[in-house]
Amino acid sequence: MRTFHSWILDAHLHHYMQTVTHRLEAAARRLGAGVGNDFYRPTVAEMRHGVDLYDRRDLEYALRFQDHATVPHHPAGLVLPVNPAEVHAMWTGLSRAERDALHRIYPFIGNHDGIPHVDRDHYNRQTLSMLRDRAAANFDEETAAGYDLIAARLESPTGHTQRFLSVIEEPYRSVTCLGNPDTARNVITYVVGAGRGPLEGLEKPEKLRSATMLIDPDAETSVIRWSGYMGPPDVVRAVEPIYAEHGAPMLRRFQEGLRVTHEGPPSRNTVIGYSYGAVTTGHAMLGPGLDASQVIFLGSFGVGAKNVGDLTLIGVDPADMKHSVLATVAEHDSIQLMPKVHGPMPTSPSFGDISRFTSDSVRGPLTSLGWNPDNHQSYFDSSNRSLWKMGMIAAGRSDMAMIDGNI
Hints:
By secondary structure, this protein is α/β, with parallel strands linked by helices. The chain is built from twelve helices and eight strands. The longest helix is centred in the first third of the chain and has 34 residues, at 37-70. The model is unreliable at 46-58 and 60-71 (pLDDT under 50).
């Protein structure tokens, strides 16, 4: 079995290959400026061939998938809005019969941000059943079993909070909510990291919800496992920004949709970007910004920005970003050994004035110089202060999370 450290080494090699190739390409172009294009173009093509073979399949697949998903795909002749506010206005103007008819001609209507999550769940469960039956009819047992697993995790045991299927796409792209974000006072969006496929369980969201309700037991809390984009399949590909660049607009639109469909006073919306999910979250905060109350960068090795001044939270005064952007990384978390390709770590002083809180860390063996890959998976452990501090932050008590000591 390969270790986490071996994946990090591969990530450095992958990044090194790209860097060398780009520099050789630039040198060849400078040379070509003097001797003509016919000399250097074949050389450049040959140099790029090795790197292209290394990463073309994953990146092209991600591009195809993301181009399909970034703007919802509609059947020919069907024109639907993309802006969540416009989607909401359209949806509220339809009768139940009209909504049913729309779902029959467009089974993925429930994926649209701006539709209430009760309705999204209602139609997406039907679509999930359709996808499962189609896979079974094609004798694709593996795919059918994957959809069965998603369906099983949607079951809400007696006494447990209801689960909502807010997105279902092929292949297995899904977003699941614990509790209804349209009625919750505390809404947490957990953005998954590299290699965290949609078939991953809901243990982390469940722990986040319990930690938040411990601090704010009278408030309804919803936790969303957001894998609404195709992230890197492994740590090696996590050096690529392309996944975050394509996922960012989808995360922006999802957060905007949460505001549009929410009932009653505005909710406290917390986005937790975990590992590569922090890169995607950071990209979503560039430009027009992300519509969230606060953001936590968890176990992050960079967020696609040079400093916090590059980031925007809609509705948050830039002067208050210190209290609205938070970060933590365990002292011996091996993720810190990753190539610094996404800018400085948010826990680094050079990133700027944000709030940083501590996570428990277990030192690794001397053979690994103390680095411990297990720390990267421990942020959601019940024995780790980071879990309970995230609950404090999501409940509006970030002041408590800044206090060190046993909790």
